[in-house]
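Memo to structure team: turn this sequence into structure tokens by end of day. - J.P.
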Amino acid sequence: MPADVFVDTNILVYAHDRDAGRKHARARDLLEKAWLSDKFPAISVQVLQELFVNLRKHGVSLAEAREIVSDYSSWRVAGNTVDLCLQAIEESERWQVSFWDGLILAAARSLRATIVWSEDLNTGQDFGGIRVVNPLTE
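Reply from structure team:
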């Protein structure tokens, strides 16, 4: 597990969605390895927020969703700041992606991640030193 990986929300959601079939199994395996690594991957407050909302949509209790989010908060986390917001605007403009994808890229860049695990961004695409990998298809 490389320490320079930023994990997008969808990978975390699949790891907790037992109805996601093969994607659930693959995401769960990836995250189990991440928990065992010497240095945890990176995420952002945005990812934690989106994870919480998705867990609740899938019927996870408030207490369990809170515990899951709390557990992931021990990873390297980029906080929501004005600077990150402005960087996200620059990323979205530069790469012609949504603001939310720009925020993922800005957070990954702020934590010096060189790989983003995501199903949403184009796998293989390089965003100025940040390469997107869809680990669910590899």
